[in-house]
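debug: dumping io for the single-chain case to check the tokenizer round-trip. Nothing else runs in this session.
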Amino acid sequence: MSIALEQHQIEIEANLRAWQGKPLLREIYAGFYERIIAQIDTSLPGRIVEIGSGVGNLKSRLPQSISTDLFPNPWLDVVCDGYELPFADGSLSHLILFDVFHHLRAPGAFFREARRALQPRGRVIVFDPYISLASWPVYGLLHHEPVAIKAPINYATELPRPRDYYAAQGNATRLFFRDEKPGWPEGWNVFHREAFSAFHYVLCGGFSKPAMYPAGMLGALRKVDKVLSVCPRLFAARCLVGLTPR
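debug: decoded output
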């Protein structure tokens, strides 16, 4: 087993233990999944594929989805990456990226492949970190992945092998909300774009840290987040973006 595969598997197993032993985390993610499901067009023919499924949690709310990741595990359906999808042209209705977009070193290369695999009215749904004044310190100081809010973004439409690990938590914010490259991705329409406060998620500790509030407070914190979401540039920590080919 390679070092990369071994480290990936260690993280996956740790996340699986956290998911199974932390009901609060499962409830929070259920809310995130419902946001994603609301952007799915059930009238579109074709399969729904999740890229980078990790421990495969989306299937708890979307059992018909195909789960994929870079390395095999019993709960996954397909092993692949987002740059080379093993699906026929025009065979997919949706591609879902949950906390995966910021791992795309060349997101334009992904969108090129997505256009091939999606049917003409297919959808890409991105759920990712959002960098606001409030969330920047959290993601920058408490998360091991870089925010990279000013780092160069690779706009290439191809990414040859070998492909190494990459993370830039600020990329979705920069590309979909700050329009650092106007008209990107070329040939796509954004049909949905929202950034929202998520202190109920941030304070739960995620997969690696203990929760900072009891489960009984989740409802109250969600109400606070709903109010704070009126000012996303100040308080948002998550974003949801939907795109379709033009």
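debug: round-trip ok. Residues 136 and 142 are 10 Å apart (CA to CA).
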